[in-house]
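So, does this match?
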Amino acid sequence: MKRKYAVLCAAAVTAAGTIAVSPTAAYADHEGTPTIRELLELCGVETDVCEFHPGGEPELFAAPSRVVGSEVFNCTSGRQDMAVIWSDTTSQSNSVGLTLTTEAGFGEVFSVSYEQSFEHTWTTSHTETQTTYVNTAPGEVGWVERQPRMQRVHGTYELHFPDREWGHYVWYAPFTVEGPVPGSPDDVVTQNVRPMTDAERAACP
């Protein structure tokens, strides 16, 4: 007995030895359907097939600038190159809010697909550690800001179930994930200064 599959767009699904059937759309982004989270939690658990299809090349973008390390205070009478030792971690996030690990479930499926599609591995978290010198005048406060390079991947999960789930054997779930780009030459690190406040001057030794 043939099964009718819900498929993306208007194309019929075919498999070896079967005949294409009329499609019925089943997307996890309409009212009255399972949530994307519910579907992804079943990936590799109750599915016969769970695959991620990237929608194109990763989009590179700059994350918002943030302060890294501690401020330094020039309490001397001359200009100083003052060392700011800092460590900054960038981590992934996704449109569903689920923890994405690359070792199991939908996270592993994403990681494998990403590596096959773009020929490098997906990084869930990256920590950058550096020492940056800030040139400060007498009575100035120095600090460092970093704007890390990130990547964004859009795509769709395709999930096949052995029995009907929410009325269909096949579901499609849109998914977006953002993550770090380790070692990117486009990371921006800036040195900044400002005058000390009266309270900060008073705290100088």
